[in-house]
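Per your request, structure below.
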């Protein structure tokens, strides 16, 4: 059966990429292409909604889709931990589902996974992330997700060592980890997680060179979203990483 997909944010770069990949698939069909001028009612009747809008719009898209009983795949960053808790509660016991993917790059997911493993062994950790100058939100959703997962991995160990965080130049803390954001022309996406220990540092880096790096992750997420129930956050939770989860 072909899944009918409404793409909200279809005129943006990620929206165009989603539309192309869906058009190339025999299992999916673009049922509606919504832009900033569209009514959300245009998604009604679809089997799945893809949200690649902006942090200010994303929650409205998800709310409308769920009211219509439509599953949602969110590729928009900016979903805070509090908003995720509220959404998880809303979906509890429901047959409907929402998948939120901060980053569709497989390399980014693996970088975050490796950083989560390393977090228990270092007390000094900082993140530097960079994106194109036009990216509205900072820190990026990927950096926030990485910091939150490292914080969870360090549960019981206490906060990281982050001196002088009262100074604005020291970045924004998430799960006690400072995050520094770059917004530059010429960048696509980059993240460095830097660990400091006695006499050594460890850096886990991921650099997105071209949007084609998102394609395999998008296909995986679309397949998973067709039957999703409840709330799933992160591509790592629909990938077979081949490692035991903590």
């Amino acid at each position: 059966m072909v899944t009918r997909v409404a793409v909200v944010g279809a005129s943006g770069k990620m929206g165009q990429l989603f539309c192309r990949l869906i058009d190339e698939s025999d299992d999916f069909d673009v049922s509606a292409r919504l832009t900033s001028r569209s009514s959300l009612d245009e998604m009604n009747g679809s089997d799945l909604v893809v949200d690649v809008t902006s942090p200010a719009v994303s929650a409205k898209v998800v709310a409308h889709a769920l009211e219509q009983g439509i599953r949602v795949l969110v590729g928009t960053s900016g979903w805070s931990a509090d908003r995720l808790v509220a959404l998880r509660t809303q979906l509890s016991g429901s047959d409907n589902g929402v998948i939120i993917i901060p980053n569709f790059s497989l390399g980014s997911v693996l970088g975050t996974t490796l950083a989560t493993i390393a977090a228990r062994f270092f007390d000094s950790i900082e993140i530097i992330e960079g994106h194109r100058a036009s990216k509205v939100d900072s820190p990026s959703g990927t950096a926030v997700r990485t910091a939150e997962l490292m914080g969870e991995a360090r549960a019981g160990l206490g906060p990281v060592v982050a001196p002088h965080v009262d100074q604005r130049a020291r970045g924004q803390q998430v799960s006690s980890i400072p995050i520094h954001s770059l917004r530059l022309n010429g960048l696509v996406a980059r993240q460095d997680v830097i660990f400091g220990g006695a006499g050594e540092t460890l850096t886990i880096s991921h650099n997105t060179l071209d949007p084609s790096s998102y394609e395999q992750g998008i296909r995986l997420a679309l397949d998973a979203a067709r039957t999703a129930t409840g709330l799933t956050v992160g591509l790592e939770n629909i990938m077979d990483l081949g490692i035991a989860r903590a």
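The first helix runs from residue 13 to 24.

Regards,
D.
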